Amino acid sequence: MVSYEEQDKEYYQHIIRNLNDRGVQLEDIAEIVIFLERDYIDGLDTEVSIYAINKVLHKREAQNAIMTGIELDELAEKGLLSGPMQRIMRTDESTYGIDENMAITLASLYGSVSVTNYGYVDKLKHGILSKLNDKSTGKINVFLDDLVGAIAAAACGWLAHNEGHVQEMLNK
Ligand code: MG
């Protein structure tokens, strides 16, 4: 039997590989975190932001949402979905909304700060999010753009709820 810790490692590595393959580095997500926290955490750097992002990427409920969303994007890109779903994903149909729901579910694991932050960056299409939203590339990122925004927002929630630890890391 595979232990919980082994599964965690497997899921984490799978997610990192998938993100990288789809053009997203942890530094890109950290850039969104720093942007969101610019008025709240003095001197927040990439290292501490990535620390918070990794906390999120090791949470099982977050891992499940991320793996599911990216899998659907990849299947759609290969044309492997059936009729209406393939069209919904190909055209990124604006009334579909399950991508946003999944992102809100992920963000809400870290409280209301994360949910509101997700909505904010989703509207702004800040940083890597505008690249992921570019439909001219032929890539299908229906879920990925929302998930990346939600990971950044969730990391902000983690930072907000672990202020002492964060200050310790920044003062080192
Ligand atoms: Mg989307």
Description:
It is built from 10 helices and no strands. It has helices at 4-21, 26-37, 46-57, 60-77, 83-91, 98-108, 112-124, 128-132, 144-161, 163-171. Helix 2 crosses helix 9. The radius of gyration is 16 Å and the shape is globular. The N and C termini lie far apart (41 Å). The model has no long low-confidence stretch (mean pLDDT 96). Bound molecules: magnesium ion. Magnesium ion (MG) binds at residues 99, 142, 145-146. Residues 99, 142, 145-146 line the site of magnesium ion.
List keywords for this structure.
0% strand; mainly alpha; 73% helix; binds magnesium ion; 172 residues; YutG-like; globular
Question: Layout of SSEs?
Answer:
Elements: H1 4-21, H2 26-37, H3 46-57, H4 60-77, H5 83-91, H6 98-108, H7 112-124, H8 128-132, H9 144-161, H10 163-171
Helix pairs in contact: 1-4, 2-3, 2-9, 3-9, 4-6, 6-7, 6-9, 7-9
Bound molecules: magnesium ion.
Magnesium ion (MG) is lined by residues 99, 142, 145-146.
